[in-house]
Design brief:
The chain is an alpha/beta fold. The strands form 5 sheets. Strands 1, 2, 6, 7, 8, 9, 16 and 17 form an 8-stranded mixed β-sheet that branches. A 4-stranded antiparallel β-sheet has the order 11-14-13-12. The protein has a 3-stranded antiparallel β-sheet with strand order 3-5-4. Helix 1 packs parallel to helix 11, helix 13 runs parallel beside helix 15 and helix 14 runs antiparallel to helix 15. The longest helix is centred in the C-terminal third of the chain and has 25 residues. The chain binds flavin-adenine dinucleotide. Flavin-adenine dinucleotide binds next to helix 1, strand 2, helix 4, strand 7 and helix 11.
Length: 580
Amino acid sequence: MQRHQYDVVIVGAGGAGMRAALESSKRTRTAVLTKLYPTRSHTGAAQGGMCAALANVEEDNWEWHTFDTVKGGDFLVDQDAAEVMCREAVDAVLDLEKMGLPFNRTAEGKIDQRFFGGHTRNHGEAVVRRSCFAADRTGHMILQTLYQQCIKQNVEFFNEFYVLDLLMVAGKATGVVAYELATGELHIFSAKSIVFASGGFGKVFRTTSNAHTLTGDGMGIVWRKGLPLEDMEFFQFHPTGLAGLGVLLSEAARGEGGILRNKDNERFMERYAPTVKDLAPRDMVARAMANEVREGRGCGPDGAYVMLDLTHLEPAHIDAKLPDITEFARTYLGVEPYTEQIPVFPTAHYAMGGIPTNIRGEALANNTDVIPGLYAAGEVACVSVHGANRLGTNSLLDINVFGRRAGIAAAEYAETADFEELPDAPETFVVDLIEGMRTATGEERVAAIRADLQATMDINAQVYRTEGSLKQALTDIEALKLRFANVAVQDKGKRFNTDLLEAVELGFLLDLAEVLVVSALARKESRGGHFREDYDKRDDVNFMRHTMAYRSIDAEGNVNIRLDYKPVVQTRYKPMERKY
Ligand SMILES: Cc1cc2nc3c(=O)[nH]c(=O)nc-3n(C[C@H](O)[C@H](O)[C@H](O)COP(=O)(O)OP(=O)(O)OC[C@H]3O[C@@H](n4cnc5c(N)ncnc54)[C@H](O)[C@@H]3O)c2cc1C
């Protein structure tokens, strides 16, 4: 076993982790631990754009952006955090530009901007062009740009290192334990500050836009430490996944003029959101699509999807602005977007919830207290700037703004703090976890349990939820956890044992699915991405508050989930009816 010591350890090399590393490594000795090679992080799959009120192509300002973020998030957004994000957005984009990111340009050479759902001028008057982009490969460009800068700045990377435990002493974060994929060796990292930037957990669903690696490890690790997770019931379903596959077609397709149509060729969004139509926030569009299908206006042999129509756009325009996603339609569905409509249906996309933090990126132990030495940023965190529903292009923004803030805060803390003693035998938990799985002889297989988990989540906890469906999901998850206790991996070796790591990841998915469902059961209202058919209205009297879930173990050793709540921070916007 190897031991390492760094002032700051960052877990994750996506946009949030690398943006944090750029700040932290300027000030302190910093290591980035990542289970993937950095440029394979999911940020690289992001397509449509990153928004900021640059006002390059039409009038705009950060206050309008803040309002849209709060309203888009169905008023569960912490408004102080949204103000920070929208105000700092302009510099976040310009910083990337200075680092060399090749944004699309206007004829005059300014950064070009396009429409995206829920982004409006003057508090909802009409849609506004706010998203900065590099064709439909914006995330790829961000990731490559940040990686280049990290290399230039000599950031130390530990690639294909899986962090599996957080070490804490007397309520302070003091290190992490990582498993090296190539060798199967464990590494103990002692650090003054630890930043989780480990991304989302979309793999709890079957139909998802998320990469296979998005298994919520960071959330799962802090959860097992008894630390809270916030707003886990709020999962975003992106309207336009390729039907039956979930592969994402960016909202940029609608931003560039694409139209959703039902089997009667009707532009049905005109009925649901008369002002902004196809560019309503994602939760509304996803529900509208699911509703069209339920009411028998779906397309295809089973009426199971709707169509995304780009056929009225010039092929040259499609090639310039949407090259990758139109290629996906050709490759995966054999559809030619120049001339044919594309079958689409909502796909699980983004976790609004996560590790609660304040606007400095400091992780919280409860509603108010900071955990010394622990930080989180990006999709793993809940600041909360997205509330109950994230607006498109606000995540690439979030990872840059709050990645930067967490990197600065972690480094500043490390500059004054001392290294703490690690607990005795800090590796014990991970050794037990891994050796338990490697040597188990049970009959259960990881792939089968994961498939059953994803199936019940797709059926019971998706766009529409009821008490009955959520209870069914919970019963299924409990049964799957029992089966998981009997899981065995076939590969008993040490080197590149991805079989073993998939089993560990499945453990995180099961935990997080349970938190999601328990939080959703208790929220007897409909808000943003969480829609309860049995409580189909937003209830500001009882539920204008964040869910805080905690794991506790009772006297008999049973694991329980306890729910508490936290007030929403409101500054200037009062809840209003969400019409678009
Ligand atoms: C297909 C797709 C398109 C999208 N398009 C857009 C868009 O156009 N605009 C927008 O704003 N948002 C978009 N999003 C959302 C946005 O891309 C993500 O929310 C964001 O990039 C997440 O960044 P992150 O840095 O938090 O995490 P990620 O980029 O997911 O990185 C996570 C990192 O954590 C590491 N990691 C995870 N677990 C461990 C572990 N146990 N040990 C060590 N390392 C670990 C991984 O190696 C990885 O480096 C899109 C998402 C998808 C899936």
